[in-house]
Amino acid sequence: MASLNLDRCINIPEDYEGYQTSLFCIPNHYEDSVGNVLIPYGMIQDRIEKLARDAFYDMLSNGREPLHAICVLKGGYKFFSDMLDKVNSLNSNHSEGSVQVSVDFIRLKSYENDQSTGEINIIGLDNLDCLAGKNVLIVEDIIDTGRTMKKLLKTIMKYNPKSVKVACLLRKRTPLSSGYIPDYVGFEIPDKFVVGYALDYNEYFRDLMHICEISQRGIEKYKQ
């Protein structure tokens, strides 16, 4: 499938095979469970730095208004933490101004009748009315079909935020995609099952620093 974000992300092609794990430090307990390294940790950090800079300058051009950043747990915690660290570094060292940042953490759970309502249950924010009038940045690890994010945005917009933008580290190209395009995208990747950098398989692999494709051995080893 063609990229939807050619001008704002790194597009990893379908035939990209990555790097041999022998070239990197991989925890012993995962050596037989992953294929090649698709995105090394250092490249992840460089890309997050650019996303943070893009978001920072967008807010500066928006009158330097405060930013309310929302982390979608669990997979987004590492991306969220690293991105905010880089925004805070810009705040501390930028001569043209700074952006005040507040944070919240949420988890998502579909309603039983989500097919009919198109909404989603947001766990973690005691009062969604607190989003009224705020510039919201939702930080997510990976967007697959985009349907869950569209439901989340539909729910949040009911509480009248001033603006809502979405940053995701990975956007997967899949025939099941709804066509949703986030505002900030780190990488577009082929339709592969990836783990690492807080992306999990049955709660494993969150402690793997690089993003790798899980192997068939890994699927069998850690299946429930």
Can you put this structure into words, describing what you see?
By secondary structure, the chain is of the alpha/beta class. It is built from 5 helices and 10 strands; from the N terminus they run E-E-H-E-H-E-H-E-E-H-E-E-E-E-H. The protein has helices at residues 41-60, 77-93, 114-117, 147-157, 216-221; strands spanning 10-11, 34-39, 67-72, 101-110, 120-123, 135-143, 163-172, 184-189, 194-195, 211-214. The strands form 2 sheets. The protein has a 7-stranded mixed beta sheet. Helix 4 links the parallel strand 6 and strand 7 (163-172). Helix 1 packs across helix 2 (77-93). The longest helix is centred in the N-terminal third of the chain and has 20 residues, at 41-60. The radius of gyration is 18 Å and the shape is globular. Mean pLDDT is 89; it is low at 112-116.
